[in-house]
Amino acid sequence: MTPQSHALPAQRLESGIADSKPNYIPGDAVAEANRCLYCHDAPCITACPTGIDIPTFIRKISTGNVKGSARTILSANLLGYSCARVCPVEALCVGACVYNAWHRSPPISIGRLQRFAVETVLSDGSAAGLLSKAAPNGKKVACVGAGPASLACAGYLALEGCDVTLYEKRESPGGLNVTGVAPYKMNAESAMTEVEFIRSLGVTIKTGVEIGKDIAPAKLVDDHDAVFVGVGLGADSKLGIPGEDGAGVFGGVEWVEKMKLESGYSLEGVRRAVVIGGGNTAIDVVRELAKLGVPDVAMLYRRTEAEMPGYKHEMELARKEGVRLVEKAVPKQFVHADGKLAAVALADGREVACDLAIVAIGQGKLGAFVSSFPGVATTDKGLALGDPMSGATGNPKVWVGGDVTGGELVVTAAQDGKRAARSIAAALALPSREDSPMQAGHR
Amino acid sequence: MADLSVNFAGIQSPNPFWLASAPPTNTGDQIMRAFDAGWGGAVWKTLGDPIVDTSSRFGSIDVGNSRMVGFNNIELITDRPLDVNLREIREVKRKYPKHVVIASLMVESKEDWRDIIKMCIDAGADGLELNFGCPHGMCERGMGSAVGQEPEVLKIVAGWAVEYSTVPVLVKLTPNVGDIRVPGVAAVEAGAHGLSLINTIKSIVGVDLDKMVPYPVVGNRATNGGYCGPAVKPIALHMVSSLGRDPRITVPISGIGGIATWRDAAEFIAMGCTSVQVCTAVMHYGFRIVEDMIDGLSNFLDEKGMKSVNELRGKALPAYTEWGDLDLNYKVAAQIDPEKCIGCDLCYVACRDTSVHCIHTAGEPLIEGHRAPTRDKAIAKATATGVHVPWVDWDECTGCNLCSHVCPVPGCITMVDDTRGKPFESWNDRIAKGTNKVPGGLRG
């Protein structure tokens, strides 16, 4: 992998969690690629939010043209690497594979093949050279936040010749790909290699710079020809019950970040952990705790399993790893004893003993921040309001995309970034190019 | 259970399955294990003056995830001393008197042929096979295919063998000729008691694009080899059939070339073979494959009500005619089963880009007056499930059959008779009637 400009600390807990789907060796990738039927008008392409030409990239793997395969992927989706590893493929491309209707053999492992192709070119350093790049055009673009949406938008515009700067308030870029992805899907090092790939396209990444504090939004807009706001979501939502601020209680995103990035953080002494929530973050957290060896991991959900918003296939895996689900569990209070967490008391009188509690019930919206950009509106739910096909806002120099507008997947953020890049290129009257990567995939 | 035993030019064999002269028949130990596994006969790895082999010497073609679809070798004849081979032949025949051992031979001079033939017969060989087929290495020394490609030379050398032999003589033919009937007839005219074919096809199996050396790589050089395996079966089947239906070929044929299963064997026998020989499939999977070959052929014969494998011999030959005798009015049309279709649309793109574009997607209209028996069901499934089920316009379909070959789902696309009572009429019939002019040619 390419050297990292943003080194990650040593002794991180996530390092103890193994990759659940290790990368293929070349022969195995070819064997899996050979299973692909190479459908015409393939349903997997339709199912991909970015519209990667999946049968084409798989055929290129089968012929040994791995660089061509990676180019096919990265053109339609610059974040093809993280998407290969974190996409809920069962609900997207793999779920649409015609093998599902056949019931003869399993659908093609599209995500693993995509990872194989992209990891190959990230590892040998050839990735950036695969994509057509225009000469510098003098246009200055700022992307606020350095998560998936901004990374995609920035990368595509850098390829069009723009002078793009990413502004990130944290010390390291990458957004949730670095801080929030379950390590058995992708660890922070892997996520960082993708960030470095985007940087290598010619993007400047400024970390530790907070827009609204260090630079006023209006000034940022004034100083650039276009601004993309892809700041994602805010802090963990809270239950608002007694004891929540006490010892041993964390927010979901907060805890995952500690587990992934905090040097020396350990779960020593944690015997019983509860996770409150029923979404995909909650499922990630229970699986992480189970994989890290916590003997008793309970998931507390306020309704029944049938109503859980998290993916069923992920919940099944969690069960296999020993996680138990407590249904109709509405927390009333975190009970502490001797300054330590002892239990979660439920509204129906039950009590679940625990020495670690993680509240994964969603994240706050950043509507207030987004509205600080002149002319940019938000919805009543606190989401940034942008044109769904372009991310354009009421301010002709400002675009929005990613989770800040209500998306929830890395792949939808990547598509938002690509759509905004196309829209910005049009607004800046950049010359159209036949081999412009951002024109690949779905509109 | 049907009788699988065959009589090949007087050689009695418990079944028609023989190992071809090749690496699996290199030693007596191998052949005895093969007989234990069920093989009826074995043609010994070609005897002659011992040679020196190269490393490496095999090359292979994989298609998709199927390994060794085609196989190539540059191995020469036996590299073991003649007396060792003869001693082992004697031992095998002593232990397996009812199994067939045929000595494959390749030497140069008349005296050499005389002497080696006598030695082999003395050792107990049931027959001889003259290796006039090897297309690599040995042919550079004036043997193998160098003999098989020259009918006059073939006739002379085969004549020597026939003269000196007291056991049946098979001539193994090379496919590296324009018309297999020419060497076949020459061998029969020389008095050969049987023919075996095909030997391997002269080939270069591939190129190592990093080293820029063809396969199989020997240091930094390579040479052409002999091609065999499943990929050559159609070529072998044609050559066997050409001889099988030629009235000048009055001797039994041992079929060789890509035979891996009882079904392959049954096809060769139906096209006129008395026995079959197998090599590549054994190199791939071992001697054990013969168990299913025996079992499968036996069950097939029982199902068809045939009491003996001899009843199968040549059964399909009468149907093999010239193109000019085919029925031009016979018509089939493709039918896609909407129930089985998984919506890969490989048939759609194949028909559109290669054939007549008679396969249509659910959304495409039907030309008025045309027939499309499955269209309604295809549209219904496409609408209900989103699966891209295509349908066939029977008035556009020419019955070419391509779609049924590209379809990955067994039984999904079938070819249905759409002749609709038209009488038989061949091209030769048209010539006879003077109705063979097709408008639109050079002269209008």
TrEMBL record, chain A:
<feature type="domain" description="4Fe-4S ferredoxin-type">
    <location>
        <begin position="27"/>
        <end position="60"/>
    </location>
</feature>
<dbReference type="InterPro" id="IPR009051">
    <property type="entry name" value="Helical_ferredxn"/>
</dbReference>
<dbReference type="GO" id="GO:0051536">
    <property type="term" value="F:iron-sulfur cluster binding"/>
</dbReference>
<dbReference type="InterPro" id="IPR028261">
    <property type="entry name" value="DPD_II"/>
</dbReference>
<dbReference type="InterPro" id="IPR023753">
    <property type="entry name" value="FAD/NAD-binding_dom"/>
</dbReference>
<dbReference type="InterPro" id="IPR036188">
    <property type="entry name" value="FAD/NAD-bd_sf"/>
</dbReference>
<dbReference type="InterPro" id="IPR017896">
    <property type="entry name" value="4Fe4S_Fe-S-bd"/>
</dbReference>
<dbReference type="GO" id="GO:0016491">
    <property type="term" value="F:oxidoreductase activity"/>
</dbReference>
<protein>
    <submittedName>
        <fullName>FAD-dependent oxidoreductase</fullName>
    </submittedName>
</protein>
<dbReference type="Pfam" id="PF07992">
    <property type="entry name" value="Pyr_redox_2"/>
</dbReference>
<dbReference type="Pfam" id="PF14691">
    <property type="entry name" value="Fer4_20"/>
</dbReference>
From TrEMBL, chain B:
<dbReference type="Pfam" id="PF01180">
    <property type="entry name" value="DHO_dh"/>
</dbReference>
<dbReference type="InterPro" id="IPR017900">
    <property type="entry name" value="4Fe4S_Fe_S_CS"/>
</dbReference>
<dbReference type="InterPro" id="IPR005720">
    <property type="entry name" value="Dihydroorotate_DH_cat"/>
</dbReference>
<comment type="subunit">
    <text>Heterotetramer of 2 PreA and 2 PreT subunits.</text>
</comment>
<dbReference type="GO" id="GO:0046872">
    <property type="term" value="F:metal ion binding"/>
</dbReference>
<protein>
    <recommendedName>
        <fullName>dihydrouracil dehydrogenase (NAD(+))</fullName>
        <ecNumber>1.3.1.1</ecNumber>
    </recommendedName>
</protein>
<dbReference type="GO" id="GO:0006212">
    <property type="term" value="P:uracil catabolic process"/>
</dbReference>
<keyword id="KW-0479">Metal-binding</keyword>
<keyword id="KW-0560">Oxidoreductase</keyword>
<keyword id="KW-0408">Iron</keyword>
<dbReference type="GO" id="GO:0004159">
    <property type="term" value="F:dihydropyrimidine dehydrogenase (NAD+) activity"/>
</dbReference>
<dbReference type="Pfam" id="PF14697">
    <property type="entry name" value="Fer4_21"/>
</dbReference>
<dbReference type="GO" id="GO:0051536">
    <property type="term" value="F:iron-sulfur cluster binding"/>
</dbReference>
<dbReference type="InterPro" id="IPR013785">
    <property type="entry name" value="Aldolase_TIM"/>
</dbReference>
<dbReference type="GO" id="GO:0006210">
    <property type="term" value="P:thymine catabolic process"/>
</dbReference>
<keyword id="KW-0411">Iron-sulfur</keyword>
<dbReference type="GO" id="GO:0002058">
    <property type="term" value="F:uracil binding"/>
</dbReference>
<feature type="domain" description="4Fe-4S ferredoxin-type">
    <location>
        <begin position="332"/>
        <end position="361"/>
    </location>
</feature>
<comment type="similarity">
    <text>Belongs to the dihydropyrimidine dehydrogenase family.</text>
</comment>
<dbReference type="InterPro" id="IPR017896">
    <property type="entry name" value="4Fe4S_Fe-S-bd"/>
</dbReference>
<comment type="function">
    <text>Involved in pyrimidine base degradation. Catalyzes physiologically the reduction of uracil to 5,6-dihydrouracil (DHU) by using NADH as a specific cosubstrate. It also catalyzes the reverse reaction and the reduction of thymine to 5,6-dihydrothymine (DHT).</text>
</comment>
<feature type="domain" description="4Fe-4S ferredoxin-type">
    <location>
        <begin position="388"/>
        <end position="418"/>
    </location>
</feature>
